[in-house]
Amino acid sequence: MIAIVDYKMGNLGSVINAFNAVGTKASLESNPEKLKDYDRVVLPGVGAFPDAMSHLHESGMADAIKDFAKTGKPLMGTCLGMQLLFDSSVEFGEHEGLGLIEGKIVAFDESKFDHKLKVPHMGWNELFQQKDSALFTGLPKEFYLYFVHSFHAVCDDRYAIGKTYYGYEFTSAVQHENIYGFQPHPEKSHEHGLKIIENFAKI
Length: 203
Fold this sequence. Notes:
Layout: E1 2-5, H1 12-21, E2 26-29, E3 40-43, H2 49-59, H3 61-70, E4 75-78, H4 80-84, E5 86-89, E6 95-96, E7 101-107, E8 121-129, E9 142-149, E10 151-154, E11 160-166, E12 168-176, E13 179-182, H5 190-202
Parallel strand pairs: 1-2, 1-3, 3-4, 4-13, 5-7
Antiparallel strand pairs: 5-6, 7-10, 8-9, 8-11, 11-12, 12-13
């Protein structure tokens, strides 16, 4: 049983459709008390970090997600959902995250860009595998996924399983034990994204 955390901050329909496309049933879950009953949890998200954390705290989902992470069962955050896994973000001020992975979410530093680029980073870009992961099973070492974001994670390389180049190199996929995160949207990334979702359903 796979739960898609419903906290009013995401393209939940497309996430459900992606799991259906790989032959796996996933359910929207808005009750924090029930989260512990699932085998796997996905934390999606579209929007601003502080709004998302407010919704998670108000609903009780923040504590439920932390408790689920302690069980050792797989937890995956995507896009904003990945950013929420970290200690903090500077989006619209300094805000605490879930603290499940050490690191911080920062804005793209356009002063480091080697040429003029638009922010947000939007569209198809390559993810370069840094380490083996169960979520990369059957995927090439370099492959394209779909991105939409203005902020990115800064963390120790021991957590980085994937990196991407946009003006400079940044961490685009992370893993810490049973916790996984992808800055791009697997559910919008066609064949390669669906493979990540299929792999998550199998671990």
